[in-house]
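ok trying this again, last paste got cut off
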Amino acid sequence: MGSGIIGIYGFSRLWKMARFLYYGLMALQHRGQETCGIVTSAGNGNLYHHKAPGLVDQVFSEPKIIEALKGWMGIGCVTAMPEKELGKIQPALVEGPQKVALCFDGKILNVKELTGRVKPFVPQSEAELFAALFSRELEEKHPLDAMAELMKTVKGVYSTVILTGKGEMVAARDPRGVKPLTIGSFGFDYGVVASESCAVDVIGADFKSDLKPGEIYYFDSQSIKRKQAVKPQPSYCAFEHVYLARPDSWINGSSVYNARMEIGKRLAKENPVRDAEVVLGVPETAIPFAVAYSNETGTPLGLGFVQTGRRVRSAIKPTQFERLVGVQLKLNPIKTAMAGKKIVLVDDSVVRGTTTKNTVSLMRNRMGAKEIHVRVGSPRLVASCPYGTEVPPEDELIAANLTPGEVGKVVGADSFHWLSLRGLTDALGIPKSRLCLGCFSGKYPLPPEEGGADDGR
């Protein structure tokens, strides 16, 4: 499943971390809009928690909820997986043999094998399975060693942050580093880990770096320790830079904003549109692409759509109906920006093509656009993601079976082009050998294994 995770360790009993976690999760809301939760600790053996389906400001709408989350350390999570059963919502909580709360972003590929190791306990999710495994390792090992041992047995991709009943926090990133995880500090003390640096910034901490693939951080009231538990084999998710991450984040040593500006520049070089009158970016994620495309070609940049209501990330909604409604809610077109004009419409990605088709139809038939040339700031999506990123099955991907010209006809555009795979890797400035490009190529750094199709529920 897709998730956004955060952990904060305060090093002082004067801190009250629940409010910091709340704002950190607000900054990560784009990574999951279905469920959220927070667990805190005051180092007294208790884990205080609240979690539910819904957005962060909905789940924690009452001040008394935050007030009840005592403690100077805590973890939190937002997810893109709709759940109604409380036990399946993160953070996962395991009472024994050692008390553990865990937030997890990723996918375990050997679920069936690992489930046998925690019998008779029956985990309700992959996060709960990971928590149960860690809890058992804690019986005889220091948390650093327990996590290092677990990283040798869990096959998959993940970033995780854990709170123990003893008042310790552990953060880890798998050897491939497909899922991002950053670390920041309050003053001199490293004490904040989060999926993206934007969450570190929002709570007033200082972003320092990414956790290295295969690296573990350990926090207790007296110390901070780190360990390179497994040799790094980086395979950073390229889709994070294209779509998932916020533009104000740094991940994998790269500015997301700079990468998207470079993508727009390369898209313009690969697929310019002669005599275009205006460049429009849709949705919000594509605005940097459109700005750079405009700068590179000299075509004026316009504002074609205005957001209505709360920000809705329609592409990660679980059903097609919700995705379509989400697009209509968040994007209201400006007729005078489109009527009678030859338009370059820059999108961040085209998955099924349905929302693009609706947008093009709206622009042409209701707004009066003369020509619409679609340019997409990512390569063709041709394969689903076995690691939990919200990319649909191959038979639902419009790029898997159609040429750009055919897609253009389907969506009603005058022309249609994707960014090349070479253009993407050059724009990111990360060697191709250190990237996961599976959704664009069908080739993955860590192939699915027995149990990989099972999400642990």
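PB: full thing came through this time. Residues 255-429 form a domain with the Rossmann fold fold (CATH 3.40.50.2020).
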